[in-house]
Amino acid sequence: MKEQPAVDEWHRQLWPGQPVPVVTPEKGGGEYATRYVTTSVMVAYVLHMCSSSRPAETRKLAYGCLRSLFDKACQTGCFRIQHVHFSLDLQHGQWTTQELRRPTDFQPWTQPFFDKLVAFQWSLDLVDDKKIGVTSVPPRIHPADFVLWTMDITRDLRRQAPETFCAKTKMQSAALSLLTQLASFIDGHMRAVTMEYQFVSESGARPRAAAKKKAANDLMRCFRRRKPAERTSAAVVWEICGRVSELLFSQEERWISKAIAAAGGGVSSVTKAAYRISAT
Predict the structure, then answer these.
(1) Which of 10, 55, 60, 174 meets the CB 3.0–4.6 Å disulfide criterion with 44?
(2) 42: enclosing H helix or E strand
(3) Mean pLDDT value across residues 34-55
């Protein structure tokens, strides 16, 4: 895909010195030769799609995906992060350990730091329709909002004070660190993060209708546009994920929605396919 060089660059910023993972198709060929992207590549891809250079609709989809990943990690009840609080002069930092049982438990900065360097610009961006990644009302800041607000360093001095620009630049390392911790947590807790999508194959039981509806609306609503249909089996979902990854990396398809459609993913499998493509 055309975005691959940019995705690779984001991956290098997230994991400096580490090669970008490339998963080759399994041996055997045929329709069972599938290709997957790793969690780290998925996070880099979502971050790239959130950048200001992408179309507004693409940024909305990517923002919803990133927000949902943080939400699901917090819902496990064991998502702990290391985060740095910078001093007002941006010369010192103090690391803190935060346990996020809810996204709003996140404390991205101290109150004096927020009042001096963040509050005014945040209030402007909150009412700006073009700032898709700023939806949180202080003091409850969603981690996804913090990441996207920090990474948006468009230097418009008519709307952004120089000290705020410097603060954003300084906090970018903290935002990237937060994303790497999210990716690591997903890898280590895949079953817990995707619990609502698991099938009890031994008994053939299905999740309750309420859980099914919540999963569709809560986890990946950005990839859904119609009423949820019947669930697709886990085997079919993984097969669709492999085909989608192969289409994207071979540049046969540019957009993930078109790739899912070309891979035979119906409305019922779009949400699960979009999420499971991030699994290693």
Answers:
(1) 10
(2) helix 39-49
(3) 86
- Which range scores top for mean pLDDT: 2-16, 22-36, 212-226, 246-260? 2-16
Is the pLDDT assigned to residue 276 strictly greater than 70?
no
Tell the residue number behind the tokens 């997957």, with chain if given.
36
Is residue 20 scored above 80 in pLDDT? yes
Locate 26 and state its tokens.
Answer: 């399994």
The C-alpha atoms of residue 58 and residue 47 are separated, in whole angstroms, by: 11
Q: What is the pLDDT of residues 142-165, one digit of tens each?
A: 999 999 999 987 756 556 788 998
- State how far the Cα of 77 lies from the Cα of 183, in Å rounded to an integer: 16
**Total-model pTM:** 0.68
- For the stretch 179-195, pLDDT in tens is 999 999 999 998 888 76
Using left for φ > 0, alpha for ψ between -120 and 50, and beta otherwise, residue 275 falls in alpha
Amino acid making up residue 229: A
Instruction: Decide which of 259 and 123 is more confident.
Output: 123
Tell me how far CA of residue 116 lies from CA of 22, 81, 113, 131, 164, in angstroms: 44, 25, 5, 21, 9
Inter-CA distances, 250 with 179, 213, 257, Å: 26, 34, 15
3-state DSSP call for residue 99? strand
* Enclosing H/E stretch for 274: helix 270-276
Burial 168-187 (b: 16+ CB within 10 A, else e): bebbeebbbbbbebbbebbe
Polymer length of the chain? 280
DSSP string, 163-210: HHHHHHHHHHHHHHHHHHHHHHHHHHTHHHHTGGG--BTTTTB---HH
Structural domain boundaries in the chain: 4-49+207-276, 75-190
